[in-house]
Amino acid sequence: MNLEELKSYLNITWAEEDLFLQALMEEGIAFLEEIAGIALDFTKNTNKSLLKDYCRYAYNKQIEYFEENFASKLLRLQIKSALK
Question: Which helix or strand (DSSP H or E) is residue 78 part of?
Fold first, then answer.
């Protein structure tokens, strides 16, 4: 996933927050890879979707609810990663 995809998902058309959004993406990648225990491919729809939603929650200052609301998807990510 790239910055433009994230901006499109969040309906952001201005460039003033690009550095902030890039930092959110990097934080989300680190978080999801820590959960999975392996490096992830964020071109795959499931991983990309989780990353977009992580960034959406972080951007809206609601990150504390992400794990709770996406627990089943995060568990599936862990299981799929463990099987590899």
Answer: helix 71-83
